[in-house]
Design goal:
With about 525 residues, this protein is of the alpha+beta class. The protein contains 15 helices and 17 strands. It has three domains: about 10-75, RNA polymerase II/Efflux pump adaptor protein, barrel-sandwich hybrid domain (OB fold (Dihydrolipoamide Acetyltransferase, E2P), Beta Barrel); about 110-285, no CATH class; about 320-525, 2-Layer Sandwich (Chloramphenicol Acetyltransferase). The chain has a six-stranded mixed beta sheet with strand order 8-17-16-15-11-14, with helices on one face. A four-stranded antiparallel beta sheet has the order 4-3-1-6, with no helix packed on it. It has a three-stranded antiparallel beta sheet with strand order 2-5-7, with no helix packed on it. β12 and β13 form a beta hairpin. The two termini are about 55 Å apart.
């Protein structure tokens, strides 16, 4: 996963351009990934074959984490996976790109079986058709190994949900929870009888199709009978004979989510490469399962005949939209938002923009606003600043972000150092940035370095509004429409923790003065334009 901007926490794999087993050449775009601010192509670093997709479509990874393996068709992937495991351990990661997706975890030994289900059932069952894997050979994170050692747990009994089947610390904890045991391996007081214990035992005994399936099925029947659940035994036996979750193609994120929420991956329809199950697929299954129950509960509580709420579509936030949502939510929770508004006669700035257009310069009202913002900041540096870590940092360059509404969310391409540029330069650069944003071709560099933001809703007929600050900036300017009487309203939202209302009023007063002075507006252009 490439690093797309200094503030990037994670990226999402939007699309794989190749399938596992396809040959690729150096430079070929093999995947498209997306962060909160940008979408990037991931190219092959060398000629070879896409041997493994580590993160499926819809899955996420942190910058630097592997999303796939390109290697020669005859190369041993164990070397790559071992290298990835070492990198994960060095970074103290909870998960690492290690192991083989088909690497099996053996079922619990006799003692573990007795503790979980109340019956030893004799011997150990195998999962995935492998019975003789030692704990030292199992792929596991350092944290998982430490927890297993503390509890005297054989890691071959644990199913790994990390990338390529690696066992994580969460997997060990999940193992204890599933079997109703404490971390020292002793049975919890409420476990040992009833349907819950039977379900756990049936899951532990479930194996893959083939030779191992018969043994696993027999163990499931014995354990269910020992639990004394009666009619439920048939369902548990059927589950044991069905394909196990270990055999399902699923992204690591999907396995982790399924493990946390108790979702049977064999019941999930995959939409990823070769029908692999993604995190989005698991979430869709959870939503589909919970929506009817939620409607029924609401109806029962409020009485028959009351209004119902039928969900026609559940839209999951993802990629840019998800992160923008989180950042703006954080901004609104943390910053002390205050908005001051100022209406003024926009006739002068509109006239100057029209005069420039008559002379072949495509400088809009927005471009002159950007220049006005930059010009006014010299006397009001507190608004051209960042506030983070308890520090209010004033910035010399006036780098103005311009909010652009794009498919999938809102982005803010940044016009750098507007004060040092002519109106022609600002117009050309803003136009190019906007075109790239609308086409989905913007880069992380296009969105980086902002110190102040302008958002214009005037083209939608909006008079005024209260814009939300783009963190860690300290202010944002909202622009309304030019009304029939020639007036327009500017709305300045600011962080009251670092600037006050009087400062904001003075800034708006100076900005309006700039935008209503024809001499100042003309000076924004190259000297010979109006000669």
């Amino acid at each position: 996963m490439p690093q797309m901007g200094m503030e990037m926490d994670q990226g999402e794999v939007v699309e794989w351009q190749y399938d596992e087993g396809d040959d690729v050449e150096e430079g070929d775009v093999i995947a498209v990934v997306e962060s909160e601010k940008a979408a990037n192509d991931v190219g092959a670093r060398e000629d070879g074959r896409l041997r493994r997709i580590v993160v499926g479509e819809g899955g996420t990874a942190e910058p630097g984490d592997p999303i796939g393996i390109v290697a020669g068709p005859d190369e041993n992937l164990a070397e790559y996976e071992a290298e990835l495991e070492d990198e994960a351990a060095d970074a103290d990661a909870d998960t690492g790109a290690t192991g083989d997706a088909s690497g099996a975890a053996a079922a619990a030994n006799a003692d573990d079986g007795a503790a979980a289900g109340g019956s030893a059932a004799g011997g150990t069952g195998s999962r995935g058709g492998v019975a003789d894997t030692s704990a030292d050979e199992v792929r596991a994170t350092p944290g998982a190994r430490q927890r297993a050692e503390e509890a005297d747990l054989d890691l071959t009994a644990v199913e790994g949900t990390g990338p390529q089947g690696v066992i994580t610390e969460d997997d060990v904890e999940h193992y204890f929870r599933d079997r109703g045991t404490d971390d020292d391996g002793t049975a919890a007081a409420s476990v040992g009888t009833g349907a819950g214990a039977a379900a756990v035992d049936a899951d532990a005994a479930a194996g893959s199709a083939g030779a191992g399936a018969t043994t696993a099925g027999a163990e499931a029947e014995a354990l269910v009978a020992g639990a004394g659940v009666g009619p439920d035994a048939h369902d548990a036996t059927a589950a044991a004979a069905a394909p196990g979750a270990d055999e399902v193609r699923a992204s690591p994120g999907a396995r982790r989510l399924a493990g946390r929420e108790g979702v049977d991956l064999t019941a999930v329809d995959g939409t990823g490469p070769e029908d692999a199950i993604t995190e989005a697929d698991v979430r869709a299954t959870l939503e589909a399962a919970s929506a009817p129950a939620a409607r029924t509960t609401a109806g029962a509580a409020s009485g028959a005949g009351d209004a119902t709420r039928t969900v026609t579509e559940a839209r999951e936030l993802g990629g840019i939209q998800q992160t923008v949502s989180e950042r703006l939510g954080e901004s609104y929770r943390n910053a002390v938002h205050v908005t001051v508004k100022r209406a003024f006669d926009a006739g002068t700035v509109v006239d100057v923009a029209g005069m420039a257009e008559d002379r072949g310069v495509d400088a809009s009202l927005t471009d002159l606003l950007l220049k006005g913002v930059g010009e006014t900041m010299a006397a009001h540096p507190a608004f051209n600043a960042l506030f983070e870590g308890g520090e209010h940092r004033l910035i010399e360059e006036v780098n103005v972000g311009v909010a652009v509404d794009v498919d999938g969310g809102l982005v803010t391409p940044v016009v750098p150092d507007v004060r040092a540029k002519s109106a022609e330069e600002v117009a050309a650069l803003r136009g190019a940035l906007t075109e790239r944003a609308l086409a989905g071709e913007f880069t992380s560099e296009d969105l980086a370095g902002g110190t102040f933001t302008v958002t214009n809703l005037g083209m939608f007929g909006v008079d005024s509004f209260d814009p939300v600050i783009n963190p860690p900036e300290t202010a944002i300017l909202g622009v309304g429409r030019v009304r029939e009487n020639g007036t327009m309203t500017l709305s300045l939202s600011f962080d009251h923790r670092v600037v006050n209302g009087a400062d904001a009023a003075r800034y708006l007063d100076d900005l309006v003065g700039t935008l209503t002075d024809p001499g100042t507006l003309v000076s924004f252009f190259d000297a010979d334009l109006f000669a």
